[in-house]
Amino acid sequence: xxxxxxxxxxxxxxxxxxxxxxxxxxxxxxxxxxxxxxxxxxxxxxxxxxxxxxxxxxxxxxxxxxxxxxxxxxxxxxxxxxxxxxxxxxxxxxxxxxxxxxxxxxxxxxxxxxxxxxxxxxxxxxxxxxxxxxxxxxxxxxxxxxxxxxxxxxxxxxxxxxxxxxxxxxxxxxxxxxxxxxxxxxxxxxxxxxxxxxxxxxxxxxxxxxxxxxxxxxxxxxxxxxxxxxxxxxxxxxxxxxxxxxxxxxxxxxxxxxxxxxxxxxxxxxxxxxxxxxxxxxxxxxxxxxxxxxxxxxxxxxxxxxxxxxxxxxxxxxxxxxxxxxxxxxxxxxxxxxxxxxxxxxxxxxxx
Length: 352
Hints:
Blueprint: H1 4-10, H2 35-44, E1 49-52, E2 58-61, E3 68-70, H3 73-81, E4 88-91, E5 107-108, E6 110-111, E7 114-115, H4 117-123, E8 127-130, H5 137-145, E9 150-152, H6 159-173, H7 176-197, E10 204-207, E11 213-215, H8 220-227, E12 231-232, H9 233-236, E13 242-244, H10 247-253, E14 257-261, H11 276-279, E15 283-286, H12 288-292, H13 298-309, H14 311-321, H15 334-340
């Protein structure tokens, strides 16, 4: 189950994406390539390659993988953004991935967040990509015990983690240029966000996940609120991690804005209706898949929130960068992207 032609093409690709420190090329053994050959393979994004994953396991691919299983929505989004979706034979199929074209045609491989081991084994993939922090270590071990190659990504708890996920996925698939372009695209968009939020007054924002649950201090979504030019109201309330806020505490905090996922409505009988934010119509929305999945499209979610909070500053910042990168997503229309070098890239979903 290999793609010889893809491997040959991949050998010609020069990678700059590994500067982010995504994995390590292991020293060659007696029957493998020499150290110099291994270094050259890494530089050229060729195979064989060995990367150290988040579980501390050295994962080796002798050839470019043809069939891939991804065990998380964010991992799926990342592969789609790299333009390598045709390799995916198994993935989570459902609302969290419905926005990925063709996802409904793949084999569903999860039962909740537990892996359907027999299903994955029957697909006989060349590599399985498992998002760290979501997939249980015992499920990863079961797949490895069945003879499958499994790469565990980092937990996806920061923007840097997303960059590293993109880079490692690109290296596994021999798509290093696409990964490098995607990271660059993310950074370009975030630079506009940063310019927008310099020196602005930061309104307090309460992220309503549902039932009063929210993201407090020490969460990725809390970091995203800061990036978008807001103060995290939940953190101001003393909430740490993911937890339910007491209704009276939300009213007492009286945040400037309430943030909800698109399609979500606040319950009419909840005290949150008493807040100034609701009374003044300051309820803003964000694409929930993009906002909650540590994948490239998370920068689009940050932009979406930033624009709603600081529209005038955002328009000024974007006017300076218009025409330089455009709105194209990396990986879609791979041939055209390769020809035109449309390096603007993007990505991916709930915390999977």
